[in-house]
Structures are given as C-alpha cells and as structure tokens.
What we know:
Layout: E1 3-6, E2 9-12, H1 22-25, H2 35-66, H3 68-74, H4 79-86, H5 88-107, H6 109-129, H7 133-162, H8 170-193, H9 198-216, H10 226-230, H11 242-271, H12 282-305, H13 307-327, H14 331-346, H15 348-357, H16 364-392, H17 395-415
Antiparallel strand pairs: 1-2
Amino acid sequence: MFYLSLGQQSFDTMPLIDYSFLSKILPEAKIKSSFKKTKKSYLNRVRIATSLFFFGMGFCFSTWASRIPDIKSTLNMSEALLGSLLFVLPIGQLAAMPFSGKVVTQYGSRIISILGLLVYTFCLILLGLATTIWQLAIGLFLFGFFSNFCNIAINTQGVYTQQLFDKPIIGSFHGTWSLAGFFGALVGLLMLTFGLSPLIHFALAFVLVLLIILFNYKFILNAKSKQEEKDSSYSFFKNPDLTLIWLGIICFCGMASEGIMFDWSGVYFKEIVKAPGALVILGYTSFMVSMAIGRFLSDILVHKYKAKRVLIVSGIVISTGLYLAVLFPYLISCTIAFMLVGFGVSNVIPIIFNTAGNHEKVPTGIALTIITSISFLGFLIGPPLIGFIAELTNLKYSFAVIGIFGLLISLLVSRLKIFK
C-alpha cells in the first residue's frame, strides 16, 4: 500500500495511486474543513476533470463528423472517393497502436492526455484548412493517429480515477463521451444555421477544448500503476497474456455490434423498415440515446449486480435487440430493438477497459492498447461484413449474423475467471 502523510494526519490509500502530490496542492495552513472533506472535494474535482477530458475527446470527433457533408461538397468528392478518404482516419489510428501504449507507460498518462488532446484538437484546424484531397488525407491520418494516443491516455486516467472511489464511476466517463457526441452534432447544426465555414467551426472547437484543458489539467492525475512502476518495457509479443486476448475478443464483439449501428441503422430503417422521410434517423437516434443513458446507469448496475452479471445480461440484450429487429421489421418494434442494442453495448467498453486496466501483470497503458487494438478490428470489420452478407442474401440476415456476437459475449464472460 502507498502511504500519505499530510501535516499530522496519515492514512492508507487505494491500491494504485500515490497520494503524495496532495501535500503540495493542499498545504496544511489552507485547510479549514476536516481533511476527510477536503480530500473528498478534491477527488470529486479530479473526477470532473477526467470527465471533461473524455468530453473533449468525444467532442472533437463529433465536430469533424458533423461537417463531413460540407467538406465533401467543397472538395467536389464522389461517394466512392469520400469513402476511401474516410478510411485514412482508422489507418492513422492503427499506425499509432504498436507504440502508443508504451509511450503512455513511459511518459505517463497525464502528460500524454494533455498534449494528446491538444494536438488532436489542433488537427481539426488542419482538416478545416484542407483545399485539396491530399491535404485532407494527411489531416485525417494525423487526426486518427493522435486520437489513438488520446484514447489510451485518457482511458488510463479513467482507470486511475476509478481507483480513488469505492463505488463504480468509470461508466460515467464513457457516458460523458457519448454526450459529447450529441453536443458536437448540435453545435455543428448551429454552425450550419449561421453559415459558418468548417474552418471557423473547427477553430471555435479548438478554443473550447483548449479552455477545458487549461481549467482542468492541474487535476489530471500524475500517477502510475504498480505494473508500470515495476516494468515499463513489457512486450505483449514476447509475453502474451491470454486473458487480455479474451477480453479483447469480448470488446471486438461489442464494437462490431456498435459499429453496425453507427453505419447501418439508417439504411436498415430506410430499406427494411421502410420508415417515411426523416424517421429513417429514428433507429440511430434511439440507439445513441439508449447507449448514453446505459453508460451512466452502468456504474449503478455494476455496483449492485457486479460486472460479470451485467456483462452476461448485456450480451443477451444485444442479441435480443438484433433478432427482434430481424423478426419484427416495423417502425415501433425496431425502435425498441435498437434501444436494446444501445443499452447492451453501453456496458461492454467501460467494464472491459476497467478490468483490463487493473490487470495484475500488464501495465495499464499497454493493456488498454491491446484491448483497443483487438476491439478496433471489430469496429472496422463489422460494417463491411454487414454489407458483404447483405449483398449475398439480405440486410436482415446480416443483422442476424451479428446477433451471434452478443451471445458470444455472454458465453466468454461466463467462462473467464477474471470476473468475480
């Protein structure tokens, strides 16, 4: 256990975090309330800061996504060319994966969270400045590249912050990321209403995220896990961990289910449900709302029913939702079905990331990189797999195939000993 001494008071801390930095931030002369209340107040401020970094990361991506149609029109791109360019972003993410975890482990998640989010947001301006296809491609590669560093570092911060609290809170961080998606879309709509260019929009987004960083960076934890203190040169290829592989496969199934909702829910409502007019977005909207709510409820559910039971039920809920949409392809039933899928996938990423981040043998940053690398393949493979199966058969059968992934989540979780 780590030990903290502040003035005349001392106590044992939670397993992963060294509280010694508190003595510099909270000098004894300035403490007017009891130490316990002061500590609680400070830790709540740490939680808020971590949440806002999650928010900034989600806001950056949704800001870019909200202006894709405008950039497509400005550069006179065809659908095929746009599709090819959008694939550059995940290529940038994949390019960073081999060493992002080691960088976070070596230099600490605090500094990488701050610098990573700053550079990630600055890449928005590069996208806004693009006047040629090649400039946009370079900007998207860098945008994806630095998003991976943000993802690993900020999620590592989420794991460390969770260690400071007795009750589960990590789901709320991912819920904040989802809320940022809604906020970014609303801001994008506002910018379109006022006729502001993507460059001005992206510059304003940069200012907002910069303010988030400036007002919160002091409360981002400067801490390392026990594994990072012992071994910062861990290599998964030299010493692979089977448990992390299985956790990654569970995330793969969750991300594949999530990916098809992002890319195919609107198509499903248009071609299979035959939703009229603007109601084609009802499936996607119901999924996103349900997923955001589910992530905020995740902490309560884990606290009450434990992670293992929540994940098993989540897998069943994902499959139930997908098969309900296949068997009853009508407006109301499919809306409910997509809400079930959203609620099911909402629990997978927060719980698995927290479980992997607290692995006993692998440094947190590297463990999260391994999980992210495997699960990211699900996000990439899921949507194309849907299209391939739909081309051979029917879109409904594609959703039925992906429904197997939910059952696989439940089966794997029930067999893994890491879940208690």
